[in-house]
């Protein structure tokens, strides 16, 4: 039928057509006169199946054949902009074959009945497990948007099954001007714990042009929730809440008209708000990062709410390593959601897990971060108990290895004791001591040697080393060849040039010492490896000024002085090398044989040679050193023995470790 202003008629609102006996199933797509079955299916039953609320038949929103959500609709002719009174009767239906039994004895709940007007849901009704003759009446106010507005009823089935809804006596009519209707909705549903949710109550009256005034009292789980809220100019009242814990909560809204108003009060359908636990984000940082071996670091775990939650997580965090081993005990979060633990490890990379256990409002969480622990730097020093020392006397060389702060580990590497760059003993393991005292017997002949020590480092510490110049009886010449002493230098019109400086105060004096050290490396290589070492040994020199480094090797008659090499007619140049320095710096150099030298080196069983090394600075006097020895084609083998190794006459007798006080500084952290 055609609507008129202020009223409209729903065709066959009591479902009297078609007339059936018992019950009949209608599956989508089909129709019941003016009603269309859109999805699923419905049952039309007479009074023998269910006592109707009006007439002799009612509609079950239940598809006995399964599949699809039962949905029926009808297009209603209305006047756009007009407000209408919508009413209907609903009840829980019986379960097929069980007769008139309360549905609550079979299923824990009822399938909801959802009402749509003009495509918008205006209400959701739930069953109350009543008997067959216990109908519920619902009414509300709706506003027409178009001349042909769809009215739809649907009943989504519960996941575990529920009692079907029965519908009857649907009517649409002109409302009373004093009638009101209140609806309640939430800004977020479901929500999470700690999320700020706004509950909105909207009140309308039967007069579309009149906006109700007054207050709305919200309710939460059967008790008032806050104070009454006044309606705004649009008839809305809002209540913001962020304190709902996990679970289901029932919200209500009751409208009370303003004093002197002729409007009637109304109450919204209860709203079920579902609140779940919120997620949290867990993070881990280290301070400091990176660290060095044994250095303590503070591990901080922070647990923060993940939006939209604004609550503060509580509870505990358990730290652990990548093997699942706990680091300390459970640590409680403070008011800022933080907790700490202190760790110290050896060098390496260490994953650390922070496991948050959750609380009443938050789900558990897990974070992983890796910290880097670098090797600790060390300093090694060597000192002599007597310098100079008389030939054949005993000398104690004290070697100290210190681990630089803030590291807190002991050195477990080995020390190598050298004389002129050649190992003079087997490696000496420290085993956690901070050094050793090396007792050695000096050579029986005067000489000057470079005594060195190097620490190998270990898995927690870096290498380091040191050296000193040890004088035996105040010698100022290179160690003599082992086969015997060299003849004294020949007379020369030029003054003698010392091979080691009397003092190391000037750049030139420093260069003399460095030339001596550089040449000694070659001498020891020739003694240790034979003639083949002459052109296979790298020599390193650091200079303090710009200039030219030149080195020449002569034979068969080794000159007795540097100047004599230029006068001897029978001197044969065996090998040479040179390098130019543009300024202070370090360079590595290796000798190259001459054509004659290559033949001599290839066929000689031994060769008496003189090594002349000269550094000529761009400004200043040149510096020259001379070394003489007889080198054999094949060198003799040397056994590395801690108590009997000899190097240029030095004999190491014993090495005594220096113990340190045991503490966390002397403990490995792995």
CATH top level of the largest domain is Mainly Beta
Largest sheet: 7 strands, mixed
Strand content: 35-45%
Number of helices: 2
Cα separation of the termini: 88 Å
Structural class: mainly beta
Concise account of the structure shown:
This protein is mostly beta strands and 670 residues long. The chain folds into five domains: 23-173, Jelly Rolls, CATH 2.60.120; 180-276, Immunoglobulins (Immunoglobulin-like, Sandwich); 280-374, Immunoglobulins (Immunoglobulin-like, Sandwich), CATH 2.60.40.10; 378-477 and 649-658, Immunoglobulin-like (Sandwich), CATH 2.60.40.10; 507-638, Sandwich (Immunoglobulin-like), CATH 2.60.40.
Please give a structural write-up.
The protein is mainly beta. It has 5 domains: 23-173, Galactose-binding domain-like (Jelly Rolls, Sandwich); 180-276, Immunoglobulin-like (Sandwich), CATH 2.60.40; 280-374, Immunoglobulins (Immunoglobulin-like); 378-477 and 649-658, Sandwich (Immunoglobulin-like), CATH 2.60.40; 507-638, Immunoglobulin-like, CATH 2.60.40. It contains 2 helices and 47 strands. Strands 14, 16, 17, 18, 20, 21 and 22 form a 7-stranded mixed β-sheet that branches. Strands 1-4-5-12-7-10 form a 6-stranded antiparallel β-sheet, with no helix packed on it. The longest helix has 23 residues, at 507-529. It starts with 22 loop residues before the first strand and ends in a 12-residue tail after the last strand. The model is unreliable at 1-8, 475-510, 564-568, 636-647 and 660-670 (pLDDT under 50).
């Amino acid at each position: 039928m055609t609507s008129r202003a202020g009223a409209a008629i729903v065709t066959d609102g009591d479902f009297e057509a078609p007339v059936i006996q018992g019950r009949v199933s209608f599956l989508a797509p089909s129709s019941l006169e003016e009603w269309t079955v859109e999805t699923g299916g419905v049952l039309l039953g007479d009074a023998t199946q269910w006592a109707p609320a009006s007439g002799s038949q009612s509609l079950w929103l239940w598809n006995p054949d399964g599949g699809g959500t039962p949905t029926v609709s009808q297009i209603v002719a209305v006047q756009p902009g007009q407000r209408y009174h919508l009413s209907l009767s609903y009840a829980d239906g019986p379960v097929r074959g069980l007769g008139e039994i309360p549905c609550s004895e079979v299923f824990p709940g009822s399938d909801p009945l959802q009402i749509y007007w003009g495509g918008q849901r205006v209400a959701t009704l739930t069953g109350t497990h009543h008997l067959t003759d216990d109908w519920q009446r619902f009414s509300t106010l709706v506003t027409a948007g178009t001349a042909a507005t769809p009215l739809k009823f649907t009943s989504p089935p519960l996941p575990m099954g529920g009692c079907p809804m029965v519908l009857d006596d649907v009517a649409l009519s002109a409302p009373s001007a004093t009638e009101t209707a209140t609806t309640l909705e939430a800004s977020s549903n479901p929500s999470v714990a700690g999320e700020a949710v706004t509950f909105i109550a909207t009140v309308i009256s039967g007069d579309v042009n009149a906006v109700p005034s007054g207050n709305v009292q919200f309710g939460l789980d059967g008790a008032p929730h806050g104070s009454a809220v006044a309606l705004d100019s649009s008839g809305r009242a809002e209540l913001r809440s962020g304190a709902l814990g996990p679970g289901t909560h029932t919200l209500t809204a009751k409208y009370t008209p303003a004093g002197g108003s002729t409007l009637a009060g109304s109450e919204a359908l209860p709203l079920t708000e579902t609140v779940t636990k919120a997620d949290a984000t867990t993070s881990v940082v280290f301070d400091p990062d990176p660290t060095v071996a044994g250095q303590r670091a503070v591990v901080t775990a922070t647990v923060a709410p993940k939006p939209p939650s604004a609550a503060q997580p509580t509870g505990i965090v358990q730290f652990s390593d990548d093997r699942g081993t706990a680091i300390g005990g459970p640590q409680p979060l403070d008011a800022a959601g933080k907790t700490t633990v202190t760790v110290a490890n050896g060098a390496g990379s260490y994953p650390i897990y922070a496991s948050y256990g959750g609380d009443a409002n938050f789900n558990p969480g897990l974070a992983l971060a890796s910290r880097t622990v670098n090797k600790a730097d060390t300093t090694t020093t060597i000192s002599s108990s007597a310098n100079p020392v008389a030939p054949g006397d005993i000398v104690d060389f004290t070697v100290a290895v210190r681990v630089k702060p803030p590291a807190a580990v002991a050195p477990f590497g080995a020390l190598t004791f050298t004389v002129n760059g050649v190992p003079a003993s087997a490696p000496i393991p420290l085993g956690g001591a901070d050094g050793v005292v090396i007792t050695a017997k000096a050579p029986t002949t005067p000489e000057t040697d470079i005594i060195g020590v190097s620490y190998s480092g270990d898995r927690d510490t870096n290498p380091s080393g040191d050296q000193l110049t040890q004088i035996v009886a105040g010698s100022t010449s290179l160690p003599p060849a082992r086969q015997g002493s060299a003849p004294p230098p020949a007379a020369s019109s030029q003054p003698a040039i010392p091979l080691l400086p009397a003092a190391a105060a000037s750049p030139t004096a420093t260069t003399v010492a460095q030339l001596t050290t550089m040449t000694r490396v070659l001498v020891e290589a020739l003694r240790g490896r034979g003639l083949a070492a002459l052109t296979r040994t790298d020599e390193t020199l650091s200079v303090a000024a710009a200039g030219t480094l030149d080195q020449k090797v002569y034979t068969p008659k080794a000159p007795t002085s540097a100047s004599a090499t230029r006068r001897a007619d029978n001197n044969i140049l065996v090998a040479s090398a040179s390098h130019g320095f543009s300024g202070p710096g370090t360079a590595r150099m290796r000798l190259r044989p001459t054509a004659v030298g290559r033949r001599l080196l290839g066929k000689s069983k031994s060769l008496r040679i003189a090594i002349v090394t000269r550094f000529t600075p761009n400004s200043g006097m040149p510096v020259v050193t001379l070394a003489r020895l007889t080198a054999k084609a094949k060198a003799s083998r040397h056994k590395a023995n801690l108590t009997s190794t000899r190097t240029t006459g030095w004999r190491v007798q014993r090495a005594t470790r220096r113990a340190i006080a045991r503490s966390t500084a002397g403990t490995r952290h792995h």
